[in-house]
Amino acid sequence: MGKWLEVAVACTRENVEAAANVMNEMGSGGVVIDDPALIVNCINQGSIETVAPSFGQTAGSGVVVKGYYPAWPGTNSRLEQLLARLGQLGVTWSTREVHEEDWATAWREYYKPIKVGKRFVIKPSWEEYNPGGDEIIIELDPGMAFGCGTHETTSMCLALLEDELHGGELVYDVGTGSGILSVAAALLGAEKVVAVDIDEVAVRTAAENIQLNNVVDIVTVRQGNLLEGSVKVRADIIVANIIADVIKALAPDASAALKTGGNLIASGIIRDRADEVALALENAGLTCERRMEKGEWVALVCRKV
Ligand SMILES: C[S@@+](CC[C@H](N)C(=O)[O-])C[C@H]1O[C@@H](n2cnc3c(N)ncnc32)[C@H](O)[C@@H]1O
């Protein structure tokens, strides 16, 4: 793995585009634009539901544009040209060396086997673990997809799947991410699991994790929007760990895709919006029978009556 030189340019909003153009023209294969105002806009529009409490203290008002250049002999002269052109824009900059392996694997150091629910152990694929008693091991390499098991919204789904699955069920996993809930359902005895995600990186990661856990005969994964085009037979269980608005949008289709007596496990719901989501699910013909809370998050179990 190689070394890279990161050039971070402090800009005003007016010269962001010019700085990004210069960096691209000088050979950065894309730039990162770090603009706290974009996050504030998203918060105001309601498209981000949670923000680290430290955000307000750490977010400055300026924009930082970052470009990356392979650190090999010859980069120095290119860097001089780049800095001269940036100088003409009247911006300031800093440089630092970054190692490719730092990006790709640094997070792995902090990701160890963890126990979730009553029996699950989520084991990173590169870690050793000797299972004890009736533990169920989920091997996982989440890559760039959401779902390494540590998030409250995921761990509530795992605990609820343990309670709701008894063997032989058809399960739809909407917004599968790393595939963690599909693998869990298969290991708990589901007969068939259909996993869907709108994001192609998630679909690829889920397929790898399904293979890693030897459940390819049980779980199929496809790219798609919610349940569109996925429902051939009504399900016993639908699990969806997405955000409040998406759960509300899913409610009518989820209700139609469940057998009578089947359950929707809906998670990813921020506490302030749980009543509103529950109402949308009830209006779609489901009865919310159980509510679980962890931190700021709520998961609901709603039955098709
Ligand atoms: C919070 S993650 C949950 C991942 C995993 N199921 C878990 O519980 O850890 C939500 C996932 O839903 C996917 N998603 C968001 N909107 C979607 C949609 N309209 N249709 C299908 N998947 C969607 C995202 O790409 C993301 O992978």
TrEMBL record:
Gene Ontology terms describing biological process: methylation
Broad class of enzyme this protein falls into: transferase
Gene giving rise to this polypeptide: prmA
Protein family (similarity comment): Belongs to the methyltransferase superfamily. PrmA family.
Pfam families per the UniProt record, alphabetical: PrmA (PF06325)
Catalytic activity, EC: 2.1.1.-
Molecular-function annotations in GO: protein-lysine N-methyltransferase activity
Purpose of the protein: Methylates ribosomal protein L11.
The reaction(s) this protein catalyses: L-lysyl-[protein] + 3 S-adenosyl-L-methionine = N(6),N(6),N(6)-trimethyl-L-lysyl-[protein] + 3 S-adenosyl-L-homocysteine + 3 H(+)
Record Gene3D superfamilies: Vaccinia Virus protein VP39 (3.40.50.150)
One annotated Gene Ontology cellular component of this protein: ribosome
Residues reported to bind S-adenosyl-L-methionine: T154, G175, D197, N241
Alphabetic keyword roster: Cytoplasm, Methyltransferase, Ribonucleoprotein, Ribosomal protein, S-adenosyl-L-methionine, Transferase
Source organism (scientific name): Desulfotruncus arcticus DSM 17038
Record protein name field: Ribosomal protein L11 methyltransferase
Localization of this protein: Cytoplasm
